[in-house]
User: What shape does this take?
Amino acid sequence: MSKRNQTLGEFIIENQTSFKYTSGELSRLLNSIRLAAKVVNHEVNKAGLVDIIGNAGDTNIQGEDQQKLDVYANDKFIQTLTKRNIVCGIASEEEDDFIAINSQDENHQNKYVVLIDPLDGSSNIDVNVSVGTIFSIYRRVTPIGTPVKIEDFLQKGSAQVAAGYVVYGTSTMLVYTTGDGVNGFTLNPAIGSYYLSHPNMEFPVDGNIYSVNEGNYSDFPVGIKKYIKYCQQDEGERPYTSRYIGSLVSDFHRNMIKGGIYMYPKSTKNPKGKLRLLYECNPMAFIAEQAKGKASDGFTRIMDIQPTELHERVPFICGSVNMVEKAEEFMRNN
Assistant: This one.
């Protein structure tokens, strides 16, 4: 495969044949995300020094308090993607509705839509815990030359052409897939370039980490409660280790490297689940499957779910195949 000292740009060029659409468009799109992520990373890293932490005073369409960095990251990604003249529409967790973007020739010739969670886990910013960005890319389904419509965004996850995330942690990493495996690139802040550091990332088939907010245990479905008890039993390779950061990107990233399962099931507080299908669950499911993992809502493959609304929520179970299938078994039996 590719050499570890490759930059992200070099990697895209070398592997362009693995992308079934024109490589130039994908390259420009990923470069836009890469650039915006570097700008956001700069702000995240100086959050304790300037007035960028804390509540912005508004709530988003989800009814959640917006952090100042949420607003900043959202603006930066929208600005960068718009200026590059490559996308025809953007949907963001922080926006009520999708944003239609005209191409510079004013004929709506752009082919891609991007769905994005600009700053996942932003409530952790104030306490210096890793946060991230999640993105999902589709080809539009409405005719080129017309304004983008809602159906361009309400596509099954199986139609994604690329997805990825950026984790802003002790080092900044961009991890993505175009349907031909998963590769991770680490930012060298001294020169501003991402270098291939984690080629061919894969979930171990089994793991010993379970990630779930056990503070909500009493509100979980019986199947999830019994699976958590199973994880805690002293038998064979168990008990498993409980690790929960509260930032989807960080929990997912750790579990992909070490082996584990992430769960955000439905509950009495969130009967439809908490995570958003289009710009959290689908992109993470695409990455998981390309990394030989699995993602479901407990019964159904995440990427087979037909979205009906932009900010739709679903239960989410994702990680090492054997662990996810065991959790699904508990769900089916209860």
